[in-house]
Structure formats: structure tokens, C-alpha cells
Amino acid sequence: MMNTYVVYVENKPGVLTRVASLFRRRAFNIDSLTVGRTEKPEVSRMTITVDADYDQARRIEANLYKLVNVLLVENITESPAIIRDLAMIKVAATHDARSHVLELASVFRARVVDVAPESLTIEITGTEDKIDGLLEVLRPYGVLEMVRTGIVAMRRGNKGAVLAPSLNSGVGEIASDEGISYSV
Amino acid sequence: MKSENDTKAEKKTEKKIMTGAGILWECLEREGVKHVFGYPGGAILPAYDALKHSKIHHILVRHEQGATHMADGYARATGQLGVAVATSGPGATNMVTGIATAMLDSSPILCITGQVGSKLIGSDAFQETDITGITLPITKHNYLVTRADEVARTIREAAYVARSGRPGPVLVDITKDAQQSTCEFDWEAAKPQMPGYRPDLSPAPEEYKKALDLIHSAKRPVILAGHGILISGAMREVITLAERGGIPVALTLLGLGVVPASHPLNLGMMGMHGEAWVNHTIQEADLLIALGMRFDDRVTGNLKTYAPNAKKIHVEVDPAEVNKNVKVDVALVGDLREVLHELLPKIESPDRGEWLHHIDELKGDAAVRDIQNLPDNGHLYAAHVINDLWRETRESNTIVVTDVGQHQMWEAQYYKHEQPRSLITSGGLGTMGFALPAAIGAKVARPDAEVWVIVGDGGFQMTLCELATIMQEKIKVNVAIINNGYLGMVRQWQEFFYERNYAATPLLNPDFAKLAEAYGMRGITVKERSQVIPTVKSVREHNGPVVIDFRVEQEDTVYPMVAAGAALHDMIRRPTPLVETADDE
Fold this sequence. Notes:
The structure holds two protein chains of two kinds.
Chain A: E1 2-10, H1 15-25, E2 30-37, E3 43-51, H2 54-66, E4 70-75, E5 81-92, H3 95-107, E6 111-116, E7 119-126, H4 128-138, E8 143-148, E9 152-155
Antiparallel strand pairs in A: 1-3, 1-4, 2-3, 5-7, 5-8, 5-9, 6-7
Chain B: H1 4-13, E1 16-19, H2 20-30, E2 35-38, H3 45-50, E3 57-60, H4 64-78, E4 82-86, H5 90-93, H6 96-104, E5 109-115, H7 131-134, E6 141-145, H8 151-163, E7 170-175, H9 176-180, E8 182-185, H10 205-217, E9 221-225, H11 227-232, H12 235-245, E10 249-251, E11 266-269, H13 276-284, E12 287-291, H14 297-300, E13 311-316, E14 330-333, H15 336-343, H16 353-362, H17 366-369, H18 382-393, E15 398-402, H19 406-414, E16 423-425, H20 435-445, E17 450-456, H21 457-463, H22 467-473, E18 477-483, H23 488-497, H24 512-518, E19 522-526, H25 532-541, E20 546-551, E21 561-562, E22 571-572, H26 579-583
Parallel strand pairs in B: 2-3, 2-4, 4-5, 5-7, 6-7, 9-10, 9-12, 10-11, 12-13, 13-14, 15-16, 15-17, 17-18, 18-20, 19-20
Antiparallel strand pairs in B: 1-8, 21-22
Helix pairs in contact in B: 2-8, 4-6, 4-20, 18-19, 18-25
């Protein structure tokens, strides 16, 4: 089963390597990993998807927490969440095909971001399924190049992530343990 | 008017301009470090130069691997932080084996390495290596320090991470310019900042209740006692739990000593080379109470057939260990001692006499098969040597440090450990060459203890260069080489599983006694059983270090044995009488 984690880490050199290395070391295969800034400059946020069963998923979470630079781990697989992937697809579109391709793009609410004599580049944002769907219908025209960002995800609702009150806290003041459950 | 305390506090917070190198030693001192084990080189030279201002005693090793094992032995003998120092490049990479050893056995060591100047990083400069990258998966955490003003906080964090929670090795790589340049040193301001580090977890109240229900309803419970008991300092609590509940205790290799061997509820070591009845007890149990152990494959055998009728309670400080190898019914994640303090007042004392009686019956003819009860046939067996050594040293404050292989298992079987921290051995990684340097660390940490190295002829030759360290530092360590002219444990596997094809296991050895003499220490060769006790007596009286070369039976075998991947109860038993195996080659 595909699990989606949102992982908050300290924005420090080498932290991405630590996280990636953990998955390799414990023989879990990362399906997708994205990393970027958050509303706090000292915190980065990762969205990681991994194929794992229930016990493996819990162990991944526990192992992520063992990394000193990891602030918070949320497995949002079962939670209502907004999940988005972005793709840019360069598709062959000669004179005859051009209008068909444009039509398909508009059905998927995708945008054309570059027009060249023999091709169109389409940008699409959405769930992975939606992008897969567009890709499938574009394939017959000839996909010349494609890039996808991998997913980013956020829980629905009012609640934000509970991070440490201040990143300048001492060792005694550590991040909230909310969301960590040790019952089996 | 200022009190004396105020003046002291003021002095403590006094700010000084210091070099990064000076701050390094100052911080280590403040962390309570008294000894470091190291080897100098270009990129760590500023630190070595600054050592002259420090009270810390530096012990010069002969190989950086030795420095890490010494730090490890130091840590295991006392529970204190062990510190190893090396230069960049090859100095740092030589530490890798020792770091991995400490990682798998949760030993708190701090490794300080020099690094090329920060401007040169990434340029493949002379003796540059990415040691934080290399050691990332084998350290609890590591740091690259490129500025003098980062040294203090990093050392404080590193020491804290190494010691807290589940301990482990931490490496701090410091560039040469960070050691040389100066900054204001302010201990108070350099407080650790680790908002993501959570070493102190505690179980939810309902988990305690579940655990108690399982314990009270169990008819055939067993405690599995591991290294975590020692780390947590929960020896007394575990014994109380066993006695109050009438629950027998089986130990892991690293757990030996946490419950005295002579305690009536102590069954002894479990697992691959545990006694048959111990493993049968586990297989027949209806409840396993795992305390500070991690269900290593060496103690479980085949997981599919492991303790099939038992419920499992896992008390463990590291949540990532829960349900890793064995699926458990209740997990109490937290410090073992604190968890047991919570549990103990509620433990009832049901009558478990029947179960204990049954375990007694499981012993069967084990005593008859014991090599100690067989008549002397003129052969010198490792078991004899170890048992005689135990008889001679059992009354004193002795630490035995073993290497890896057959002798390690015989030691675990025939040296009866009564005290915690009286056995130091490489369990998880199984590092040959560990014993001699680790024993040096143990002796430096506990100079009052009598330290014995029990080592094979193979492993001894991996780190024997540290004999020179022993002489230079005048360290009284006694080395008992169990010399069978083979890589014995590998040979045993070849005997059982590879049709006696002894590929690359026979060893042509030097004369170890003469070798010892070349280093300036006493060397003795023992070939007869009658000579074991007199030799041990004379070695104990001798002031300096001694190497004893025990020429033991060459093709002796460690019994019982659970083959890798076999069920725990499926053991290759000791034949009766054992002498036949030695003669039927």
C-alpha cells in the first residue's frame, strides 16, 4: 500500500541525504520525494510516498523520528488531504493535431505554456491520477518530453502542523509528541 | 554581598577568546571526559597542539580502529562516554569498523576527526575524505564543523546525543581552520539545540495495564534480559521482577551479568549457542517479557517458529525496534528502569512452581554432556581454560573482554558472570580484533579491575599492534589466546555445512609468547591442562601485562548450536561423551 508522509525537518545542510539514506539503509523504496521551504525559514517540508504495509509504515515513521534533524512526521495516508503533482508535457502537435491537443488540454484544465512550430508544452497540476489520465490521451500524438515534480500534500481543515514552540528551545523543550502512538 | 556560589557561577560564564581546538578540549573536560584514545595527523594537529593546556590524558594507539574499540571498551566498562580522536582521510576511515561496532551494540562513543580546511572541502585535497557521508548510516548522528564558533555547541550536542536515549556513536568532523581560528567561548550560550530529538519517551498508561494483565495471566512466562538493562541501570529492578513474579530469566550475550549467573532464576544464555533447555523454555513459554533486547536473529532462530504460543511484551527505549523482527502484543516504549518502577508495585506473586519444575526437567542429561564433567583425556580444551580462569578470578573484580568466534561462545558458556559490566564483547557486529583494544579501554576506565582478554589466534592478529600501546601506557592487561590454529567458528560452519572443506581457515601462526617478549612483556605457552591454573596464578601475581598462548584442541566444536535459519528448538546437541568428536577426525 502506498503511504504518504509529510516530514518537517530542520533546514540544515545534509538533512535530505540523511532522510534519503535512511530509506536506502532500511531497504524501503521511495516512490516520490519532494522537499521545499515552509512558512518558517528554519524548517523544510518533505512529502514522501513509499510502498509499505502497516508494520513497515510504522517502522518508517519511528526510524524517521530517530533522525535528530526530523521535527515532525505525519502519515497522512488515511487522512483527508489535498494532494497535488505538477507535470510539464511536451507533445508533438503538427498543424493537423494541434486543435485536438488543445481541446484535450482544456478538458483537463491544463495550460499551454509553450508553443513551437511542431510541438506544444502543457502544464498540468492535480492528483497523480489526473495527470496519468491526460498523459494517456496525449500519448498517441507523441510525448516528446515530460517532467513531474512528485506530489506535495497537505491535510484538509483548520489545523496546522504542531511544531516545536521555538526552534531555539533547549534539549529539555522538545517538539510535541502529538501524533506519535506507541500502542500496537 | 556575593556568595561563593555566585562567584563560581560568574567564573563559569566568563567569556574568553579561544581557538576552536582549545574549545574542543575545554568542552570535553566540562563533559567529564578524562581520557581520549587517538592518533595524530595533519588535519588534527591544531587540536593535538592545544592538548598541552588540557587535563585530559591522551593515549596514543597504533591504529585508529584500536582507538574506537578502546573508547567503546571504556564506555562499556563504566557507562561513561568514550572518546576517540583521529586525523582526516585514512585516519577517519580506519575508525569505521569501530564506529559500526559501537552502533550495533548501542555504545556511547564520541569520535573526533580532523578535516581539511573548509575552503578545500570538495577539492579532493590531500587526506580529504567525506567521513560524515561515510559514517552517516553507522552513527547515531554526525556533524561537520567548519567554524570555531560552532565547536562548543556541537561538542555539547554530540555528547548529549551519544549518551541519551538509546546510546550510540557520534562523530564530529572539524576542519583544520575551525580548529585554528579563534572566537569567544561561552559555555552557557552553547546549549544544545535539538528541537527534533526525543530521547525520553514513556508508555501510555493503558499499555501498562495490558502488560500487567498478560503477566498475571501467564502460566509459563520467561524474561528475556538484554543489554538495555545494563544501559538503563535496571539490574535490581529486573531481579525484583523475576523474584516477585517467580519468572525465570534467559539472557542475551550482551545481557550476561545483569542477573548473577548463580541466581536460581537465571537460566543462562539463549539463542544460537545457548543451552538446549534455555531455548526449549522459550519455545514452550506462553509469555515472553523482552527487556532491553531487540530479538536479534542470533537469539530467535527462525522467526516463523519462534515461541509460537507466547504472547510478547517488549520493553524498549527505541520505538523503531518494536515489531521489527518479532510482532509483539504490548510495547512499553521508554527507559527500562522507569518502566519497571511503574510496573513493579503492581506485580503479583502467583505460584509458578510447576513451570520452574518443568524447566528443571528440560535440563535432562545436559549436565552429563558438559565437558567439565568428563574425565581428563590429556587434551586441552578451550572450555577447560575458560572454566579454570573463571575459578581463579571469580572472587575478584574481573572484567573479561572477548573477541568474536568460538572462544567468545565458550566464554559465554563457561565463565559465570556474577556482576554487570564484567563481560565486554562485540555482539551485534561481531567484530574480530575488538578484544585487545577494548580491554585497554576497560582497564583505563577501571584501573582497579583485573582485566582479561580472551581472544582467538585469528582475531588477536587483527589488532595485536596495540600490545605496543599497552607497553607505552604501562597497562596491566592479561591476554589469553585460545589458539587452535584455525579460524575456529568458520571452520565449525565448514564442518557442519560445507562438508569439511576447510577453505582458508587453517592459520600458520607466529610464536605468540616470543612475540609478546619482543614487545617487552611476558609471554607463556601452555599446552597441558595441568598447567592452566598454575599459569593463571602466576600471571595474576605478575606486575606487567602477559600474553598466554593456550594451544587448545584444534577441531573442537561449540555445542549446542542452532543452525542459521533453523528453529530455536532444533539444536545440534553436544554429543556424549564429547571426547569422541575430537578423536573421530
